[in-house]
Fold:
Amino acid sequence: MLDITTVAFAHHKGGTGKTTSCLNIAGYLQKNGKRVLVVDCDPQANATAGLGINPETLNVSMYDVFMSAFEGFPDIVINDVIVPTTSGIDLAPATLDLVGVEPYLYSIDDRAGLLKEALTRVRDTYDFILIDTPPSMGQFVINGLVAADHTIVTLDPGTFALKGMEALSTVFCDIREMLGENVTADFAILTRWKGSDGRAAGAGGLALFLKRIFSPGPSAEDEKEGERLKMFESEVRKAFKQVFMVPYSPAIYETQQHGLPISHYAPETDAGREYRTITTALLELDGKRNEDVSL
Structure:
């Protein structure tokens, strides 16, 4: 492998499963014996809480790492803020203070590369760094994309998810034109997904058999929604080389309440198995990238 592989999770719309996907893939990477760091760049600090760390108890965080670039602020490097978690994943946590960073970033020319530069200090420490970006189109998202070797876009089945992808594609183009950085999305993950027949992806077995026997046929509204989801999936598959569908699962929310990824809490659920599949695909993609670089 190269020294380190960095993955950014992005979508400017909230509720698409960025944090959930980031943490669950991090969990399976850790289970695969990889040294993993999650970097929380979202002021909401959901990744921080999702790994069992209370943001209110922290003395330093990613806020301090970013602000160290400005005169008059303490010289804090990323090594100073990293904390271990019970899952075995290390965390560079966020706090609500991170909201105050962005206005400062617009005052400097090299603002897009601050995170990438900060991560150079841990190149020899981790195999994978996963960056959770906020639901916005601001500087934290751009910093995450510039720092990343791979980008994963998460989409929920809502009506406006694809419109959000169009906005993100514009950001990719702007980064290429202004910074010369080639940013593309490697995977799409459809979260809380139900198939066009209205059932969760991966659902089946006896429960499905009984449902088909005893449930009434689909209503006109159900059929219309099924057609919309079918068209949605088709459009996503046109836009991405690889698309994964993670079914809705209550276990996902239970894992976050326990401060653990699904790999450590409920790996044999349908959602757990799908995140394992996604992680395997990421490892294969990264292996191919490393082979190409070594040629």
Summary: The two ends are 13 Å apart (CA to CA).
